[in-house]
Automatic annotation (TrEMBL):
Belongs to the class-I aminoacyl-tRNA synthetase family. It comes from the Archaea. Its main location: cytoplasm. Residues 12-29 have a biased composition (Low complexity). Residues 508-519 have a biased composition (Acidic residues). Catalyzes the attachment of tryptophan to tRNA(Trp). A motif ('KMSKS' region) lies at residues 404-408. It is found in: Cytoplasm. InterPro entries: aa-tRNA-synth_Ic, Rossmann-like_a/b/a_fold, Trp-tRNA-ligase, Tryptophan-tRNA-ligase_arc. Residues 520-531 have a biased composition (Basic and acidic residues). It catalyses: tRNA(Trp) + L-tryptophan + ATP = L-tryptophyl-tRNA(Trp) + AMP + diphosphate + H(+). This is Tryptophan--tRNA ligase. It comes from Halogranum amylolyticum. Keywords: Aminoacyl-tRNA synthetase, ATP-binding, Cytoplasm, Ligase, Nucleotide-binding, Protein biosynthesis.
């Protein structure tokens, strides 16, 4: 247990905390990523190993003018963000999209996503903000009147924080027919067993809830409906299942899969590097006019590698091919191509090629050239040509009372609609990472990494001023800064932020009224059964 300090007397008062930068949340023994649950992440490092999320710090230098949330490690992870960073550096097209489920007031935790969308828009990205009203209705059981009220509040805060509504796109899931048409097409590439495996759906799950998931997949890919381009989805790590599923569906929708190949049969991802190694070793020993045969490569693998499933599978395919020449080539596999698209591809492949019933092998095209050609043929023949979407992940904010910040616990969060004085009072009453006494604090220093109040400085109150955020941190851990004074300063800054934000929300009212955006749902019906 840690103890807080009274701001006036600097004497300790009882309080507990279980949050912090590393989110060592009490009771969270393992990583569970549930987009609709209340689980937290007990150790962000596990996400790198268990889910393939990459550390954002490793590419920070590749991002031009990185946002302070990136610089401070609040944005801690990513999935395939490099294409987006490259587009920013080179001035190419890219997009950013994230959505908001209107189940309550927007709060300072949502501000992280607002800021990430706005920053990407300022870097030249096509920006999309959506109201996930179908999800709110189907997964949370809100009525359409409740959804309408909350949707307005989210949009006003997004615009007040700097979203350029004239240059960006705002929409509601329920009112976007193009989105729903895309969801229908994506649904043809998904099946119920995947919903069970990814989301734990069962026989009690409503069809509307499942439909809302496919709609979310369409949301993630929606920025590419006019033109394929790198697209980033800023989310918390609990939303990663949606991102992974959307990346899978984007791949399944493609007309062609481009791979490296060596023989007429298709090798899997484990077999291909083994055959490549065999080819390289044998080719180095032959004269220019000699040819590596598949059976030679089979002999080499048998002699050089320890038996396992990949090695044995590669040998079997090579033996089947016999004396067929083993030659590197780029392969176009037919995934969903129409007959016209397949014929157009054959015509477009330049140089030496071999045409099979379900694939085309090109001997004079690089992998990159083949990828570009496949997408061009797809777009010319009515396909989407999707680029797998990227994502960035930010840490969960710790609740002001410790534990997870929750809309259902008013004292744990600050709503962007809170009266500024209420915001001031919530910060003054917040749990801290302080020591038991002022004397112990001065001697040992505070635990800023476990302090919800320091998170307010790092995530929001310091703004773009890294020097100020570092000063607060250093003074805390060095014992110079006591909790009473620190909370007083944070509370004053929070009051100023809320006053400024709510003034800008009033200014945004007029902008919102001018947009082609319906704030009143025309839908009827009751909320579906809860799950």
């Amino acid at each position: 247990m840690t103890r807080d300090t009274d701001p006036e007397t600097e004497e300790p008062t009882q309080a507990t905390t279980d949050g912090g930068t590393d989110a060592d949340t009490a009771g969270a023994d393992e990583v569970q990523l549930d987009p609709w649950g209340s689980s937290t992440v007990s150790d962000y490092r596990k996400l790198f190993d268990e889910f393939g999320i990459e550390e954002f710090d490793e590419l920070l230098d590749e991002v031009p003018r990185p946002h302070y949330l990136m610089r401070r490690g609040v944005i801690f992870g990513h999935r395939d963000y490099r294409p987006v960073a490259r587009a920013m550096r080179e001035g190419d097209d890219f997009a950013v999209l994230s959505g908001f489920m209107p189940t309550g007031d927007p709060h300072i935790g949502h501000k992280l996503v607002f800021d990430e969308i706005i920053w990407h828009q300022q870097q030249g990205g096509d920006a999309y903000g959506l109201i996930a009203d179908l999800e709110a209705h189907s997964a949370r059981g809100l009525t359409w009147d409740e959804i309408d009220e909350h949707a307005r509040d989210y949009l006003l805060s997004l615009i007040a924080l700097g979203f350029d509504a004239d240059d960006g796109t705002l929409y509601r899931q329920s009112q976007n027919r193009e989105l729903q048409d895309l969801a229908f097409e994506l649904g043809g590439k998904a099946n119920f067993s995947e919903f069970q495996a990814i989301y734990g759906f069962d026989g009690e799950t409503t069809v509307s809830h499942m439909q809302s998931v496919v709609t979310q997949m369409a949301d993630i890919l929606y920025p590419q409906t006019e033109k394929p381009k790198p697209t980033v989805i800023p989310v918390g790590p609990d939303q990663d299942p949606h991102v992974r599923f959307a990346r899978d569906l984007a791949t399944r929708m493609r007309f062609f899969k481009v791979t490296e190949a060596y023989l007429s049969q298709e090798l899997d991802d484990e077999e291909r590097p083994l055959v490549a190694g065999a080819y390289s070793a044998l080719a180095d020993e032959l004269d220019e006019d000699e040819t590596v045969r598949c059976e030679d490569a089979a002999d080499w693998l048998e002699a050089e590698l320890t038996p396992d499933s990949a090695r044995d599978g590669a040998i079997a395919k090579l033996r089947s091919a016999g004396k067929e020449p083993l030659r590197p080539r780029t392969r176009f596999l037919d995934r969903n191509a129409t007959e016209g698209a397949f014929e157009a591809l054959i015509e477009a492949v330049s140089g030496e090629k071999r045409v099979f019933e379900e694939h085309v092998d090109a001997f004079d095209l690089s992998r990159t050239e083949a990828e570009d050609l496949a997408r061009e043929i797809e777009l010319d023949n009515g396909g989407y040509g999707f680029v797998p979407p990227s994502s960035i992940y930010h840490r969960f904010m710790t609740g002001l009372t410790g534990g997870k910040m929750s809309s259902s616990i008013p004292a744990s969060h600050i709503s962007l609609l809170d009266d500024p004085e209420d915001g001031y009072d919530k910060v003054k009453a917040a749990t801290t990472g302080g020591r038991s006494t002022a004397e112990e604090q001065r001697e040992l220093g505070g635990e800023a990494d476990k302090c919800p109040v320091y998170e307010l400085y790092a995530y929001l109150l310091s703004g773009d001023d890294d020097e100020f955020a570092k000063k607060v941190y250093d003074e805390c851990v060095g014992g110079e800064r006591l909790c009473g004074g620190c909370k007083e300063q944070a509370a004053e800054l929070m009051r100023e932020f809320l006053e400024d934000h709510q003034e800008k929300r009033e200014e945004a009212e007029e902008l919102l009224e001018e947009l082609d955006f319906s704030l009143e749902s025309e839908r009827r019906g009751v909320a579906p059964d809860g799950e």
